[in-house]
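hey so i finally got around to running the thing on that chain from the lab meeting. sorry it took forever, my laptop kept dying and i had to restart like 3 times. anyway pasting the input first so we r on the same page abt which one it is
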Amino acid sequence: MNPESVDPDSMNYGMLHSHIPNNSEKLDKYVGEVTWEYLEPHFQSGSLIYIDNSLCIKDVGKTLAKDDTEKVKKWLKSGDALKPGQAHAEYWKKSNSTFTALVVSPFVIIQEKGECNN
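ok and heres what got predicted. didnt touch it at all, straight out
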């Protein structure tokens, strides 16, 4: 063995995973602008959660990822978050609405695009 060759057992394999994304970076990967056409199958499966524009979609995503049920219950009770119904679906389909959507499996959080999105 050549004395200058590197012992494979001493190699730093950690560099392959030297950047472990934080929760915010993970959420950034799963957020984007979508149309109702994209969201409709998620609505039909019951996985959509609509949030008011007063909430930050990433904050809601972090809350769901942490399973903070008390905060989610508070939003549901106040109406700041809800499971959309058929009337919502029909309106969004007719109006060609666009949304900011964030996937926090098994949910898809949506927020209608408007003047106050975070």
